[in-house]
Amino acid sequence: MSSPIFSTQDNPPPQPWPPTPSPSYPGLEKATSIELAFKDDPIGHALQTLKMRRLDSYKQGIYIPPLAKPGLQAKDDAVLPLMETVQGFLAGDGQVMLILGDSGAGKSTFNRHLEHQLWENYRPGGAIPLFINLPALDRPEKLLVVDHLRTLDFSEKQIQELKQHRHFVLICDGYDESQLTCNLHTTNLFNQPGQWSVKLVVTCRTQYLGKDYNDQFVPMAPGQYFRPATDLFQEAVLAPFTRDQIEDYVERYVPLEPRTWVKKDYMDKLIVIPGLLGLVKNPFLLTLCLEALPSVVEGKTDLFKLRVTRVQLYDHFVMHWLGVNKRRLLNQKLSVGGQAAYTDLMDDGFEQSAVDFQKDLAAAIFTHQDGRPVVDYTPKNDRNSWKADFFSPEPRTTLLRGVCLLSRMGNQYRFVHRSVLEYFYSCTVCPPPAIDKDSNSQGSPESTSALSSIADHPLSHRSLVAEPSIVQFLAQRAQANPEFKQRLHALLERSKTDDHAYKAAANAITILIRAGVQFNKADLRGVKISGADLSNGQFDSAQFQEANLTGVNFAKSWIRQARFQNARMDGVQFGELPYLVESGDVHACAFSPDGRSFAVGLDSGVINVYETVTWTRACVFRGHQSRITSLAYSPSSHRLLSGSEDKTVRLWNCPTWFCDIILTEHTEKVTAVAFSPSGRQVASVSDDKSVRLWDAETGSLVAVLGGDSKVSGLAYSPDGRTIISGRDDGTIQTFDAQTRTRGLILNRGRKPADEGVCCVAFSPDGQWILSGTESGTLQLWEVNSGTLRLSWKGHDGAVSSVIYSPNGQWIASASQDRTVKLWNAQTGTLVSALTGHKAAVVSISFSGGCAQLASCGSDMTVRLWEVNDVLAGPDYRGSIGSVMSVAYSPDGTHLIYGSTDGCILRYDTSNNQSSLAAPPSCYDGGIILYSTDGHRIVTTKNNNIIRIWDTEMERWSTEMERWSTEMERLNTILPNCLNHKRRVNAMAFSPCGRWIAAGSDDGIVMLWDARSVQRSHVFRGHSAPVTSVSFPPSGSHIVSGSYDGSVRIWDLENYIPERILLLPDVSRRIETVAWLPTMPLIALADGRREIQLWTEQTGRIHQHLIHDKGVSAFGVSSCGQWIAAGCANSVWLWHCSPNDESHHWERTAVISNVFEVIKAIVWKPRDHEFVVNCADGSARAWKLQNVSNQMSTELVWSIGSTAFEASGAVITDTVGLGRTNQRLLKQRGAIDESSSSSGLEYQGMPDALAQSNPLEASNLSDMEEWQWEEEDEDDEGQEGVDDGEEEEQEEDDE
C-alpha cells in the first residue's frame, strides 16, 4: 500500500534570504563533483551533501497547496496560498512566523514541502533551510541549532563556523508535541550580536496554546530584550480544505493505486453521507476517509441515514491498513525467524495483535514520556528499557513494527500523526470494534471488576481533561457502545467506596458529559471525581451529598435543585463571579488597561469604581446630572473619561478621585467617548450629529467633525490615526485623526435608516472594523478596502455593544435580547452564549488579560464571566448551534429542531442523540412543523417560502442518488416550495395531515394542499400580520390571530369567514391562539398577564387565566387537560379535570426563574411532557409528576445553548466552598439552610437587594473573611455616611 497523501504542482520558488550570489559550482548533483568542487571547502561540501540527502528523502504522494488566513480576525474565505505568505515573510524583515492549525491540518506536510523548495533553490552562500522536528531534540530551548546540526553529523568546528558566517531558515515542526512553553527565539538568543542569524518558522496546534500565546513567539526588540517587537512577528492560520481542494485531492488520489472506485464514487459518498464533507475538510481525516470509505459504506443502501464519526474513520482506516500489510507479508519472502513470527501472528489474530502492539506503545509513550511522541531508541543503551518491547530486533517485534502506523528517522520512531497516537491511547480504554460486514461488535471494554486493582485501569493512569482529542474519541465510543457507557457509570459507582478510583471516575464522567449523557436526578452521593470537567453538564435535582468535587469545572452546567450537603468543593469553578448589584440601571462599564480597576456608570449619573482583586468599591464619582452612557480609561489607567445624557463629558483623575475637566460643547446627549491610544486626545459623539476631538490635558476643543445623522458608536484605531463612528442612518464614517478630514463611508446606500449602527470596534491589529446594528446583525469590514467581509444575524434584538478581546481571538457582543455572545474572530461562529441578565445588556468590557468579561445592563447588575471556563467543554455530540424551532413527531418518539448552524436535526429522546433529519444547510431560522400523519416536515425559507420534506426514507434515498456532485441541486430535487409574498409567521397542519394553514405579514391566511403542493384558498380580513393559526379536532375550521387585535374563525367547507371572535383593537396584539382538543374552547394570549379562554359557540369569554407577568407563549397538551404558559422567566401550568363539566381551570405548578424569554412551548403527544424553547437557543423537556397528590415537574433532557443554573441547589455544610462561590450560588438561587437571613443570602432577584454588596477575594484568609462578614452591616451603614461626606466635599470644591 502506498503511503498517501499530499502532493502538488510546484509553487513559484521563494525569494532567497539573504540575496543569493550567482551559482559558481557546476555539477553539484554527483558526489564526485562535490568532492572536486569543495576539496578546499569542507563546509560547502557538507552542505551540498546535506542538500542531496534532503532532496532524495522528500517523498509526497499527494500535496495540495494549503490556504491560510492572514490572522485570527480573518474569516474562512479571506485566505491566501500559505506558500505565498511564507515567501513574503522570507523576503521581508520579519524574524518569526507562526503557522497555526488544528491537528491534521497539514502543518508538517507543508513544512517538508517548504524545506524541499528551499533546498531546490539553494545556492552556496544563501540561507540554509533546516527542517527541525522539535520533539526529537532534548534541549531546543537553548541549543536548538547546535543539537540539530549534531544530528546531521556536523563537527563542532563546522557548527561554530556556520554560527559566525551563515544565515538559516529554521522550519520548526511540532512545537505543541514537544510540550514547549518557552519563546525559542528569545531563549536561543537568535539574531543577537554573535549569535545565530535565523528566520524562524514555527508550527503549532491551535488547541495547545493558551489565551496569551503571542508571548511564546514574538521576538524581542534588538537592544531592548524585554520589549516585544511585534513588527518582526507574523502569523498565519491554516484554513480547512475547500470543496475545490477536496475534489482536487480525490482526483489525485484515485490513480495512486488500482481501485474499483472513480472520483465520482468518492465525491458522491462524501456529499450524501450527512456531515462527512464537513468532517474531511481536515486533510488528515480526508486521507483516512478515502482509505476507509469503501468499507464504511459496504452493504449500506440508505447512505442518508449513515452517521460517520471521527473514531469510526480511524477504526476503518487502521483495519484497512493492517489488512493490506498482512497480504503484503503473505507474498513476501521472510527469514526463518520472520516466517515463524508471521505464523504465530496469524494464529493469534494478525490484526488484533497489531492493534494491541500499537495500543501498548501508545500507553508506554504517555506513561514514560508524558505523551511526547518521538521515541529515541538505541540498542546499546535501551536493550533493558521499556523501549526494547517495541523496537528490539526480535522477529515478532520487527514484523509488528513494520506493519504498524509508525515512521522512522534514524533511531527515532513516532506514530505517523499525533492523532494516531491519541487514537491508540483511547483504544487502551475502549478497544475498537471488529470491523467486518458480518460483525456488529462494538468492542468490549474490560470490566472494572476484572481488574486486580483500580490502579490498573487505563483511566486511572492520567487525567484526560487536558487531552480533548482522546476524550472526543472516547465520547464517540460511548455514544455507539452501551457496554462501554455502562462501564463508565460503574467507575462512578466504584469511586463511592474506593478512594483510589477518583481519577478513573473523574475521567469517566468527563467522557460521559462529552457524549451527551445527562445526569438529571442521578444518585451521585459520595462520588469522588476531583478535577473532572462537568462544563455544559445537566444535573437537575442530582444528589452530590458527601461527594469529592475538588477542582471540578461546573461552567455553564445546570445544577438546579441539586443537593451538595457535606460535599468537598475546594477550587470548584462555575465560569463566572458573583454579580455586582447597583442602585440603578447600569449603562456603561470599563476595565482599566492595567486590570486593577473597574468602573460602572449608572442612570443616576453616578460612577462607581471597584478594585478588582477584592471587588470592593474603591470610590464614587459624582457630578453628572443624568445617565452615564459611556466610559473609557486612559492608556495609563490614571484617568477616566465619561459621557452622559446631560450633554457633558468629564475627565476624572483616578488617584485623586476628582474631576479635572468638564467638556460642555455638545448640544444633545453624549452617546460614546474614547481615549486615543496615546492618551493625549479624547473623542466624543452625540445625538447632535457631531464627533468632537478634545485635548486631554487642557480640555480645549480641537475639532468638530460634523455629519448628517445621530452618532452612537466611536472607536480609535490601534495606531491612533483613524477614528470611526457609527450612525443611525446605517453608515460607518471614518476620519483621519491628524488631518481631521473624512475618509471612507462604509455601508453607504446599503441599509435602510431603521437599521442604524449602534456600536463599532477596531480589531487589535487594526485590520478590521466590527459593527453592530439595530436589527441584531454583526458586520465585519476590511479597513483598507472598506469591503464588507462578513455579516451575520447575531441577536434577536439591537446590538448595544461590540468589542474584541485584547488578544484578537474572540468577539463579544451584547444585545437588547438580554444575552452576551462570544464569537470566533476568525470565522464568526458562535463560541458561547452567556445568559443571566434579566433585562437588556447595554455594555461589555474585557479585562486586559482576557481572563474576565464584564457585562452590565438595565437589570441593575454587572455580570463577571471567567472567559476560560465558559469556553471550556467543547460539545462532541454534533451540532452546537442554538435551537431556533422545535416540533414533536406524531408518535412522540423523537422531535425535530432547527439549529443556527443551518441544519434540521432529529433528536432521539431515548438516547439523547441528534442526527440530520434533512440535508445540511437547508434551514435558515424559520418555523418547523411535523405533519399529523408523520410523513412530512415543513419549514420556511427566507421567511416567505414554505418547503415540504418527505420523511419516507426509501424515497428520500432514491432522490439522493440522483443528486450527485452539485449540492445546490438539492433545492430543486427534494423540496416542494410554496411561496408567500410576505414573511410567514405561523403554520399549522390539519388533523388529517393534508392541509397546511399559513399566516403571513400581509394579513393573509393561506390554505395549501400538502399532497398536491397547490394553493387551495386565500382568506383575507386581517389588517396586520397574522401571528398564529390553529385547527380544531374536526379540521373543519381555522382560527387565526393577528396584530390588528382580532381573532377570526374561517369555515373550510364554504371558504368564508364564519365569524369574528374578537374584533380588531390596536391596543392589543394577539400572539397565540389555539383550539383546545377536547373542549369547545379557544385559548388566546395577547402579551398581557392572562390567557383568555373563549367559548367557541357563544363567542364569550369562559375564563381568564391570570399570571403575574405578560404571557409570551403557551402550549396545550394533546389530551386538552393541560396548558403550559411562558410568563417572563417562568412556566405556569394549568389543569382542567376531564370530569369537570364546567371546564374550570386551576393553576397547579410553576417552574420559576430558570428560563430566558420563552418563544414556544410544545407538548409531547399523548404524554405529560413538554418542551420549552427559549430565545437563548435552548430547548428543555419537562415532565409532570404527581407526588402525594401534589403536581411537580422535573427536567428530562436539554439541547441547544447551555447556561449556568443553580436555583434551588442546596449547599448546606459544604466543605471548602469559597465565599466568592457561595455568594455566586446564593445569587443564582441556591439555598444554604444553615445561614441566617443576613445580607449574605440572595433568595430574591437583584431588585430585591437594597444595597450593592462588595465581592470578597477568593484568597482572603479565614480571619479576613470572618471580619468581613461581621462588618457587613456596618459597612452598609457607613457607606451612606461616606457618600454624604463626598457630596459635601464636592460642593465645597465647586
Question: Helices and strands in order, then pairings?
Answer:
Elements: H1 31-37, H2 42-57, E1 67-69, E2 80-81, H3 82-91, E3 96-101, H4 107-120, E4 128-133, H5 140-151, H6 156-165, E5 167-173, H7 184-187, E6 197-205, E7 220-221, E8 224-228, E9 233-238, H8 243-253, H9 263-272, H10 276-279, H11 283-297, H12 310-330, H13 336-348, H14 350-369, E10 375-376, H15 379-382, H16 388-391, H17 395-403, E11 406-409, E12 412-415, H18 418-429, H19 468-480, H20 482-495, H21 502-514, E13 576-581, E14 586-591, E15 597-602, E16 607-611, E17 616-621, E18 628-633, E19 639-644, E20 649-653, E21 658-663, E22 670-675, E23 681-686, E24 691-695, E25 701-705, E26 711-716, E27 722-727, E28 732-736, E29 742-746, E30 757-762, E31 768-773, E32 777-782, E33 788-793, E34 799-804, E35 810-815, E36 820-824, E37 830-834, E38 841-846, E39 852-857, E40 861-866, H22 867-870, E41 883-888, E42 894-899, E43 904-908, E44 913-916, E45 928-930, E46 936-941, E47 945-950, H23 953-962, H24 970-973, E48 976-979, E49 984-989, E50 995-1000, E51 1004-1009, E52 1014-1020, E53 1026-1030, E54 1037-1042, E55 1047-1051, E56 1056-1062, ...
Parallel strand pairs: 3-6, 3-9, 4-5, 5-6
Antiparallel strand pairs: 1-2, 1-9, 7-8, 10-12, 11-12, 13-40, 14-15, 15-16, 16-17, 18-19, 19-20, 20-21, 22-23, 23-24, 24-25, 26-27, 27-28, 28-29, 30-31, 31-32, 32-33, 34-35, 35-36, 36-37, 38-39, 39-40, 41-42, 42-43, 43-44, 45-46, 46-47, 47-48, 49-50, 50-51, 51-52, 53-54, 54-55, 55-56, 57-58, 58-59, ...
Domain NACHT: 96-255
WD repeats: 621-653, 663-704, 704-739, 757-791, 792-833, 834-868, 876-917, 977-1018, 1019-1054
Biased composition (Polar residues): 1-10, 1250-1261
